[in-house]
Each structure stands twice: as structure tokens, then as C-alpha cells.
Design brief:
This protein is α/β, with parallel strands linked by helices. The chain is 37% helix and 16% strand. It has two domains: 3-417, no CATH class; 423-622, Rossmann fold. It is built from 22 helices and 19 strands. It has a twelve-stranded mixed sheet. A seven-stranded mixed sheet has the order 15-16-14-17-18-13-19, sandwiched between helices. Residues 1-123 are annotated as: Disordered.
Length: 623
Amino acid sequence: MGCNSQSEGEGSMLSHKDSSEDEDALNSLNIRPYSLLIRSLNTKELSGKPQRKRQMSGSESAQLSRPNTGDGTGRPENVAKENSELDGLEETAEDVDEADSMNGEEESDEADYSDPFEEHFANPDDLSLSEQIENLAKCGWQSHKIQYDGIGKAILAVPASDMQGGPANSTYFTGPENLKDLLFCARSPQNSKDLRTLTCLHALNHVFKTRDRIIKNNSRLAKGNPSEDLELRDQGFTRPKVLMILPTRQSCVRTIDTITALCEPEQQENKRRFQDSYMTTDGKILDDKPEDFRDLFEGNDDDMFRIGLKFTRKTIKYFAHAKKQDFDFLSSIEVVIVDQADALLMQNWEHTEYIFDHLNLQPQEAHGCDFSRVRNWYLNGNAKYRRQTIILSSFNTPELNGIFSSHVNTGGKIKFTNDHDGVILELGLVTKQSFSRYDSPTPVTDPDARFKYFTTTIAPSLCRYGKSPRDSAAQGILIFIPSYLDFVRVRNYFGCSPTTQNISFGTISEYTSIRDIARARSHFLTGKHSVLLYTERAHHFRRYTIRGVKRIIMYGLPDNPVFYREIVGGYIERSIAEGKVDSEDVFIKSIFSKWDGLRLERIVGSKRVGTMMRSVGDTFDFV
């Protein structure tokens, strides 16, 4: 999952992408990636190729990888564990060849201070940066709501001290090229290609600019007077500069294909090995699956991977090596791009959090670093305040908000949000849907409060069905459970509690074997099992069409609103069409707390969610 990029003579590894930086690459395009990102999210006009072919200069390396998803609950012991696919391509500053140095001599020594890259990364004022960090700790953020035509509304947050008490400057706020953090929660299969092209352009822009500066400074040092004291600070501790975190090998293939299409290298070393390892010729039949499922799982859907890329003047080398230490390669990351974050949430999100926790830490070893050329804000431990984070997701969640809010970029941050009509309006189902709110004092105690509400309010009502197993009313109850930990708790309750001792039930989770899944589905359809416990991750990875569903209890609302439509709309509509249940006998009940606001908004709509959260009543019915 991921990829990272490097410049100068540094290495990288883990879920990230690395490539070096060359100003000419994006200069030849005459574009600003952020502006292009904002203007193009809702269009199909971007071709994804430069206006003219450019010759790359310099050597660079990058790595793409995906940490082990584990069991979804534990802390990874070694996220950066060496992958057997990696080559031993250790790189040093000597990788910069003579041709690169000659190219550097032809460049102007004057920096373009109108370029946000120069102000934010290359030449920030150290004193000003320290003051920014101090003022941010004292004054916090100042937020503003903006409306972008064709995209939607956004919330822009900048350090309060930067506003100087004056009115908002619309030009300043609408300038995403100013290297702000970005959380975009409207990714879809329709705009995914454009987003991928734009983020890859931005990554290459950053890498190429860093690379060009290093080449230029190498040339100055080579021809400089030995008595002249040149202080050229243009590097980090290690080589990788861009980290891309991706969910599957197929996503990695698409990203690398986009990068190579933009770079147009003359040679690609180890390309056949990459194709054999990451591309699949297996013709998986996915025509009956939803579009978002095909977008994520078609091709090679393996989520255990890590790959390094090395860029030279004419060549891309696959399977480049990185630093041996677990997270040393993360010490100098300046741009993080997380694509399909909603899919990563369905894997082991703790691995993603682990990566962010280890970004921009001091490396455990020197790795041949030339400290005389390390930028001061690295040496002062301020790299984390310069790093930019870009997160692309189909929807927003507390986990994404947590990542986005807890990491501080002094350049500011912008979060795109949209109003939701609610998926309940998309259902062709005319039946009562009931939502019940329970009291939950804190997010930490929410699982206990939810379980108590379920066992005291919902479960007793199921007992009357369990006493008549031959009655059709006793059959077809599907209980949807988002969290696997909650699933285990409810499963144990059904297996051990005297309250549910007369209820026959089956279970389907992400860890259930195919054979057991088939048995559970069959027994549920025939009525041998009155109740079926079904997890959100099982639905995410399989998208089963479960037959025989007559009543649905949402133990928790799904993060993905599409799942509500597929389960409540699809399952019930099929049962009605097959004559297994009358529409007036259908029962749909969802329970929620005040901590489920984002989930509830996507299901009932932005106009209704506020009332449901604050109203005196605790039960809301929709027909």
C-alpha cells in the first residue's frame, strides 16, 4: 500500500511512493497542480500527459507498499518488515551523474519566490517558521467556509495569527497551490482517474523541484572557490520526499502507470518483474458487482505489498531498495498522499495511524547523510510542520478527521464537504424505517452503551420470534454490525445469554470461511436460522446478495452509505419481489448515538440530521 519519492541521495520503504524532483518536469507543463486539482475535479478534460516530452535529469528512487492488514485489531509489530520482492539497490549522492550536473549549471541561481514551493519548503525563514509554530500553539486556527463552483463547499483553516485580524482574502483562501493539507471526501469511480493524475502530477512536481535544486547546488560546489564558504541546505535526512499510501496492488499499478505516462521514460528496468508480481491476468467475473466494488477489487486486490521506484535521467527502475530501519525512510517525507482512504479504513487502520505517528522523526542511523546540506527546519525538528497531507476518500469519518486534525501544517488546511440528500430517498422501498437514539456520554464508552441498549431494548423483542421457529415471522432477521469487536460481543451474547437461548442464529464476518458462509446463507434462507449476524467488512469485501431477509436491525450505521442502500433496499426489495414477505410486515430499525453524526447524515440527509441529534424525542420514523 503506498509509495514514496526521493531526491538527492536518500532511500525509502513501506507504504509510500518515492520519486525525485525536477523542476523542468512541471515547468514544461506550465501548470500549478493544486489549482489544476481544484478546477478539474468535476471535469473529464485532463489528458494526463505533458504538452511536450521532457527529458528527466537526475536519479531518484521511490517505493510503494502496503502494510499487513492483520486482524483489524492489533498494533503492527513491524510495519516496515522487509519484503522479499525488494532489490538491494542502495543509493548515494553519487547517483547524480555528470549530465545532471551539466544541466544544473545551465539553470539560473535565482529562486522563484512566487512559487509556493520556494517559500514553504526550499527557503522558509527559520525565525518566521518558529514564530508561526509558537503562534499556532497560542492562537490556534481560524476557520472559514468557502463555496467552490462545481465542487461544493469547503472549510478552510489557517493559523489565526496569519489573519492579523483583517478580513478574509478570497484569493488567499482559494489558493490550494499554497501547499495546504487537503481532505477531499467526494472521491468516486467517475473522478478517480482525474484525481490520480492530478496527485501524481503534484508528487512529481515536488520531487523534480527538489531534485533540480540539488543538482544546481552540486554544480555550484563543484566549480566554487575552495575558500568560499557556501552553505547550501537543500536536503533532508533521507532521500524519500513523497509518500503515497494505497489499498491494493492494482491501485499501485494504476498509480505507477500514471507516473510513467507523465514522465515518459526511455527505459523501465524490472518492468516485467513488476507486471508479473502486480498485474493479474485472472479474469475475475465482477459484472454483477457495484461500480465502486469493481473500482477497488478488479485486478490484483492483494493488499500486502511494498515497492520502490528509482528515477534516473532516462530510466525508471522498479524494486528499488530502502533503509533497513523500520521508519528511517519516513524522516524526510514532505508530501503524503492517501488515496482511497475509505478502503484503507476497511483494512487495518491502525497501520495507517502507525505510519503517520512515525513521519518526520529523527532517523536511528545517519545513512550517509551530509548534515551540512540538511535544511535547518529538519535539524530543528520542525519538519512535521512543513509536511503536506492529501487525503482522498468517498466519505468522511472520525478516523479521517482525526488524522487530518492532529497533524499540523503551518500552511493551513482545507476540507471539502458536501450536503447529502440521504440514501433513504434513493430506496424504492415504501415501508417504515425507524431510527432510535440512545444516550452515550463519551466515544470511549459508546460500545458499552450501544450493547446495553441492544440487550435491554432490542434483544427481548426478538425472543417472541424464537419461540415459534416454524412461523415465518420468526425468520429472516438480519443484524448488521459495523465493528468486528461488537460482532464478537453480540455473537457471544446470542450463544450464552438465557434471553436468546431459543433463537437459532448464524454468523458471517470477514474471517468466516467460504464453506461456513455458504452454510450460514443456506440455513438463513430456509429458516433453519432465524437470525443472521453480518459484519460491515464482510459486506465490503464480498458484497453478498443475501436472500430471505425480512427484517433488518442496524446495530450500528455503516460508514459507507451505499451499504445501507444495498442491504435495506436491495435485500428487502428482493424478498418482497419473491413473495417471501409483505411490505407491511417489513421491519427496519437502526440505532445510533450522537457520535454517529457523519454516518447518519449520509443516510437521512443533511437537513434532517441536526433535528435527530438534538431533538427531545429519541425515535424517528421514515416511510
